Amino acid sequence: MLTLTENAQTIITGIVDSAQVPQTGGIRIAQDAQGEGLNVTVAELPEVQDQVVEAAGAKVFLDPSAAVALDDKVLDASASPDGRVDFAINPTG
User: Fold this and answer.
1) How confident is the model at residue 36, as a pLDDT?
2) CB-based burial, 34-71: b 16+ in 10 Å, e otherwise
3) Which end of the chain is more exposed for a tag (fewer CB within 10 A), N or C?
4) Per its UniProt entry, which superkingdom is the organism in (predicted)?
């Protein structure tokens, strides 16, 4: 299952808070239409088939394809002073 670094937890919580979605909200990671990449959006709730990963209050909703692709991975994040957020997916261990 996907795990989140402390940086990712903090940044995801900040993104969701800034988007002013309910406490049920989180970021959603889904396979793009071409199946070549992943899209990240803010969501109020997970979709019915989403896998939910929660750590320290940060919620990540993974569509079924993303859940398979990110199984046994670590999600990290960094934010630059101009507000840009970069996500990185790393192997566990």
Assistant:
1) 78
2) eeeebebebbeebeeebbebebeebbbbbbeebbebbe
3) C
4) Bacteria
| pTM of this structure | 0.92
The pLDDT of residue 92: 83
* Three-state SS annotation for 56-89: CCEEEEECHHHHHHCCCEEEEEEECCCCCEEEEE
Residue carrying structure tokens 């002013």: 20
pLDDT at 89 exceeding the cut of 70: yes
Which domains, ranges and CATH numbers included, belong to the chain? 3-91 (2.60.300.12)
Query: Helix/strand/coil (H, E, C) string of 1-40?
Result: CCEECHHHHHHHHHHHHHCCCCCCCEEEEEECCCCCCEEE
